[in-house]
Design goal:
Elements: H1 3-27, E1 32-33, H2 35-44, E2 55-59, H3 60-72, E3 78-81, E4 94-98, E5 101-105, E6 108-109, E7 120-129, H4 133-154, E8 156-157, H5 163-175, H6 181-193, E9 202-204, H7 212-215, E10 217-218, H8 219-222, E11 226-230, E12 233-237, H9 241-249, E13 268-273
Length: about 280
């Protein structure tokens, strides 16, 4: 894909974040733009040119409130994807997708064919971590193991994989067949929520692809959301934006080398949008 096509995809996602911002305002829920989305807001006033995703995080109770909302308010436009709504859901977090669109990746799971594969927004839960370093290590280790099992079970096939490697992945996946994705996700949820009844002042976005230690932050870093400009929209961000970005990226205003900015172009096969007459374009 070209950068022009990535830009079209980025702008199409703004519908989702605006919808979520309006919904959270309506329901009095807290969310924060995080990760590369927040970095883009600070450094580029919008998307990082080579990063098409929009990621948000929500305190666990608000995260669950969104799930309950979509469970009782069926939408013709949007689909809430979660292990409670989609068989073989692979992610330990929720996504909201635009139904009438298709995002096709160059890598595929040999098992999971989602009901909807459209333009999406990632929603990550924020849970409390224990104060004990020993307990933090135990929680981190269990989450890491569960994520690894999901990856092995999903058996992602990449264009660069040899037939032998794909065959080996499928064999490992077959050995893991008795363990369902739903069970793995429930175990992940239980592990992430284990210390929520005894908050110790640390929040972690444990479903993130960033490490547990990078995501382990004082709850005050999230705090009361502040508003920040993103592609002309005013969105919610962590109270201590600088501390958050330094924790994740260190020298976050420094641009990566040019050869590291093109990797995203190799991820997408194509993106299809539906026109007003219902036909793909």
């Amino acid at each position: 894909m070209t950068f022009e096509e990535i830009r079209e995809y980025q702008l199409a996602q703004l519908e989702l974040i605006k919808m979520m911002d309006d919904l959270c305002s309506q329901l009095n829920l807290t969310y924060y733009i995080i990760g590369g989305t927040l970095l883009g807001a600070v450094r580029h006033k919008g998307f990082i040119p080579w990063d098409p995703d929009i990621d948000i995080a929500m305190p666990r109770k608000d995260y669950e409130a969104v799930r309950e909302y979509f469970d009782t308010h069926k939408s013709e436009r949007y689909f809430y994807q979660h292990y409670s709504t989609e068989k073989n859901h692979l992610s330990p977090h929720a996504l909201i997708k635009i139904k009438e669109s298709h995002v096709l990746f160059k890598y595929v799971s040999t098992h999971f064919k989602p009901r909807y594969d459209g333009i999406y927004l990632d929603i990550f839960p924020l849970d409390y971590a224990p104060s004990s370093k020993k307990l933090q290590k135990e929680q981190m280790r269990k989450i890491k193991i569960l994520k690894e099992i999901v990856i092995r079970k999903a058996a992602y096939a990449y264009d660069s994989n040899s037939r032998l490697k794909i065959f080996a992945k499928r064999c490992i996946s077959l050995l893991l067949a008795p363990i369902s994705f739903a069970l793995l996700n429930r175990m992940m949820d239980e592990t992430m929520q284990k210390y929520n009844d005894h908050p110790a002042g640390y929040l972690v976005s444990m479903a993130s692809h960033y490490s547990y230690w990078k995501q382990l932050m004082a709850a005050s870093i999230y705090g009361e959301p502040t508003r920040i400009d993103f592609e002309g929209l005013s969105l919610a961000a962590p109270a201590e934006t600088h501390n958050y970005l330094t924790r994740i990226y260190k020298n976050y205003m420094e641009l990566p080398p040019e050869d590291q900015r093109n990797a995203i172009l190799d991820v997408f096969e194509r993106i299809e949008y539906t026109s007003e007459d219902g036909k793909n374009r």
